[in-house]
C-alpha cells in the first residue's frame, strides 16, 4: 500500500499520507470517497516475514473476526472502527481520525503530570473500559501510547493489537515478544486467558507512569523485567499523593484480589472530589490544528528528567502522611531508565514533525473475553501462637526429603523466568529471538534460609548444597537463556527469633527473585510473613505445618491462605500420617504399634496415621510416647515384640527416630 498508488482500498478509501509505521503495521491518513471525502485513519496490519501461507490465512481469519467485533463498541472514549477489509491478502482497519496527542507524548514533553489531570484521565479510560467489558471485550494493551488526549475527550485506541501480536508470535515460532511488558500484569505475561482484570492492572501501570514519570517496573532486559513483575512489589509512588492507594489497588498481583473497575472508579472519584485544583498539564498542544504524529518525538533517555510541578505541593503534613503507600522499602536500581518501550506501532514515523501533522495512531480489533475462571480469595489468617514456640524449631522430615525438595524449590523459583518469552524456544525453527533486550544477560539471586549451625546444621548444609547444585546445573544448561543465577545463604540456626532479621536482609537485595527455605516451621512463622509483605516468592522444601498454607483455622475446616507468595514441596503433617497408613495397609499388614516423640509434629503425624489406619480396618496393638532425649529403648522394644505387632509407625523427627 502506498499513497502514490491511485488504487482505492476496498474501492473507496484513498491513501493521502503515511503518518506512522512500526513492526505491527502502518497508519495512513486517508479519505473515504464514498462519504464525500471524509477523513479517516487507515491501518495496514503487517505480518512478520517467513510465515507460511497456512499461518497467514489462519491469522487473517482470526484477526478479521475479532476486528469486526470492535464495530459494536460505541462510546466517546473508544475510537470508532468504521470498516474492516482485506487488501491483497492484508487486513486493513478503517477508523475515525482523532486529532490529538498520546499520553506518552505528553509525558515525554511535560514529564510527570499533575495528580488531578492523571485522575481525570484514569476516570475517562475506566468509563471507556466499562463499555468494552460489558461487551465482553478486553483491550489487553493499555499503555500511555494508546491513550489519546483529544481536544474535548480522552480516547482509548488500539484494541486487540496485543492479541494479534501474541497470535503472530505463536504462529511464526520466532521466539520474539511483541508488546509492552512494563504494563502487562503477571497473568498476561504467564500466558493465561485474558480477563477484564488484565486491563485494570495495565491502567494502573499507565497512570503510575503518568504521575511518577516512569513505569512501576524497570529492569535491564525483558527477563529481568518479568522477574520483577512476577515477584516484586511495584516501586512505591512518591508523587502520586492521594492517587497512591488507587495505584496500589490496581497493581495488585493476584487478579482475584485486584480492585474491580467499579471500585477503582469510586476511588478515582474520591481523589477528584478531594484534590485541590492545580495547573493541568497541557492537554493538547496541537488543538489549533497541529496534531502530533504516531509515536511522537524521540523519547528522552530518562523520562524523569523533565518533571512537572509537584501536584502534592501545598498539602498539609497530615495529608501527605495519609497518602503515603504502605509498601516495603526496596533499593532502587542504579541503572538509568531506558526509553519507554511501546508496541511496535509507535516505533517510528515517516512524517516530518515540522509540518502540519495528523492524529495519533488509530486502533485495531478487540479480544472477546472468555468466561472467567473460578477465583479463590486469599485470606490473611495468622499462624497459631503455639507454632512459634522454639520446640517447633526442629520441624522437618528426613534429610533426603529436604535435599530433594530443595532442588525442586530452586528449579521452581528459577522457572518463574521461563514465561512466554522462552515458551516457543523449543519449537522447530525457534530461537532466542535475536538481539535486543530479550538477549541481554542479567544476574539474579535466589536466597536460601536454612540452619547452617546448631543441631540441624547437617540438614541445613544439605539444603544449601542442593540449592547450589541446582543453580550450577541451571547455569551450565542455560535453563533460562540470558540469566545467570547466584545463591545467597543465611543461617537461621533453627531459631525462630532469627526469621524476621533474615527476611529483612534477603529482601534488601535488589537482585533477589525468591527464597528457598526455611527447613523448620518455627522459623517459617517469623520469616514467611516478612517475605510475603515484600512480595517475594518463598518455597520451602521441608515445612510441614498446615497453618502456613491453610491458615490458623485449618483444623476446623478453614482454608484461608495467609501468605500468597509462600509454597512448599512437601506434604503437611496432616497428610503424611494418612499416606503412611495407606502405604502400610497396601503391603498387607494388619497390626501396628504407634510411637511418637511428644512434639506437635510427632503427635500430629501419629494421630493422622492412627485415624486412617483404623478407617482401613487395621488394628493398633499399642501406642506410646517417648522422650526425644532418651536413648535407651530396650523396654519399648520388648513391648513391641510381645504385642504381636507386624510393624511400627514412628511420628517425630529423624534424630529422635534413629536410636
Question: Tags for this entry?
Answer:
single chain; Phosphorylase Kinase, domain 1; Transferase(Phosphotransferase), domain 1; 4 domains; 5-stranded antiparallel β-sheet; 5-stranded parallel β-sheet
In the sheet with the most strands, the strands line up as 1-2-3-5-4
Number of helical stretches of at least 4 residues: 19
Helical proportion, percent range: 25-40%
The tally of domains stands at 4
- Structural class given helices, strands, pairing? alpha/beta
Total number of strands: 18
User: N- to C-terminal separation?
Assistant: 84 Å
General description of the model:
With 659 residues, this protein is an alpha/beta fold. It has four domains: 13-96, Phosphorylase Kinase, domain 1, CATH 3.30.200; 102-274 and 315-346, Orthogonal Bundle (Transferase(Phosphotransferase), domain 1); 385-571, Rossmann fold (3-Layer(aba) Sandwich); 575-657, Response regulator (Rossmann fold), CATH 3.40.50.2300. It has 19 helices and 18 strands. It has helices at residues 53-70, 103-110, 115-134, 161-172, 186-189, 196-212, 222-231, 244-250, 261-274, 317-323, 399-415, 457-477, 499-507, 521-533, 547-550, 573-586, 600-615, 634-643, 654-657; strands spanning 13-22, 25-32, 38-45, 81-87, 90-96, 100-102, 137-138, 147-150, 154-156, 367-368, 442-450, 483-491, 512-516, 538-540, 566-568, 591-596, 619-625, 647-651. Strands 1-2-3-5-4 form a five-stranded antiparallel β-sheet, with helices on one face. A five-stranded parallel β-sheet has the order 12-11-13-14-15, sandwiched between helices. A three-stranded antiparallel β-sheet has the order 6-8-9. Strand 13, helix 14 (521-533) and strand 14 form a beta-alpha-beta unit. Helix 3 packs antiparallel against helix 6 (196-212), helix 13 (499-507) runs parallel beside helix 14 (521-533) and helix 16 (573-586) crosses helix 17 (600-615). The longest helix is centred in the C-terminal third of the chain and has 21 residues, at 457-477. The N and C termini lie far apart (84 Å).
